[in-house]
């Protein structure tokens, strides 16, 4: 593919002789949102790292036609010696921007993730887990990525905040045509945000089903999301992947 799509074919990967991913094929059109779902240990994070070029597959190929990929890792990985504002501005370090401009952009992105002036000056050890996650998201968005890779980016947030952050990503993706790949355990997050989802089997992870969520994401209200989850949850592959969540 040469139309700006992210494309992966035959992705296989193991660690110390144990196969974690087997022959995964997927593609995401430019500006599309793909969710990766699957049970714990099915290789979702490994696949995300391969799609972002952080890890090489043992076999297979990834086409990665992007200039500014940004990751939000499961662990926020903030620099402990920098404030929230400093951590976000750090993402802009390579740009030809004055320090004042970098800090101004960082401040404004922190406001978008709901962190005001006083929080912007706090150090990571002074931030709650949810606040750190928001700083990590701001650090990714501030560089105006053309590929955004999210690994459980909203998982430590309460429901309201998680929805707000999802909305922020959705708007950013729509306005700038960002391609987004997100790993999640939360089916409702996938149904709200993604155009397509792939579901991995237990280890070694291979794609057992693909779902498409056809309604434009801005038109997915709570009733649609609930109905779609019911429909999807009826599928056997999804029941297997989400057994602990769905039975709760
Ligand atoms: N760097 C590594 N070295 C050795 N084993 C690894 C490494 N990275 C991942 N693994 C193993 O690969 C398997 C898949 O891990 P991965 O984190 O990709 O799964 P996951 O589906 O994202 O899991 P979870 O949902 O629990 O986060 C696990 O058994 C893990 O222990």
From TrEMBL:
GO terms for molecular function: ATP binding; ATP hydrolysis activity. Keywords: ATP-binding, Nucleotide-binding, Transport. It comes from Pleomorphomonas diazotrophica. It holds the Pfam family ABC_tran. This is Nitrate/sulfonate/bicarbonate ABC transporter ATP-binding protein. The lineage of its organism: Bacteria, Pseudomonadati, Pseudomonadota, Alphaproteobacteria, Hyphomicrobiales. Belongs to the ABC transporter superfamily. Residues 6-227 form the ABC transporter domain. InterPro entries: AAA+_ATPase, ABC_transporter-like_ATP-bd, ABC_transporter-like_CS, ABC_transporter_ATP-bind, P-loop_NTPase.
